[in-house]
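Re: weekly structure request thread

Next one in the queue (208 aa):
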Amino acid sequence: MSKGSRSVTVLAWMAAILCILVALVSYRFLLLGVPTSMEFLAYHLPGNRWFLHAHIAVAPLTLALLPVQLSSRLRKRYPRLHRWGGRIYVLLIMLSGVAALQLATTTQSGPVAAAGFALLGVIWLIVTGLGFWTGWKRDLLLHRRWMIRSAALTFAAVTLRIYLPLSMVFGLPFDPAYTAIAWLSWVPNLIAAEIYLRSGNRMNQRVT
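Done, posted below.
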């Protein structure tokens, strides 16, 4: 295995571990309640309780599925598991994405943050829908490309939770930092996915 391949493997494992950890930690609201564990989202409870719970309960499952769906080894060895996992992944994103759009329209973080989260929700739903459609049509190359974009957007749940504590460590005011993170949590991810897809990597030229 080349040095570059080893680096990619290490990064993939790190990303998978982060996905699982963030998914598990996200369910702290079941024990502590939303006001205690997610204070900055608690204002949604009076008018958007169902949308908030739909998002915070469903999105972590999507994140936990991500490493399984992206594993080429599991995909080749258990194709049926991959197909059914993919269907569940898409369904979870449809539920969580619609809830996220509703929450974005009622955020108290300002119009710029609302636009960032709303656009994330819209693009997340679109690229995942295209991934499902191309998979259904058995266009496996396009399916893989769309689902990589979807994965990059799903991973925003991880990058958001990296940027938030970093902003606190550096003593940044919460409101402007949160507004920036509403965009930084997913735009660089999507750019990185596009760079990867355009890099000419052999995995993107053919699907076996």
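Residues 3-205 form one domain. The chain has one domain: 3-205.
Next request, please.
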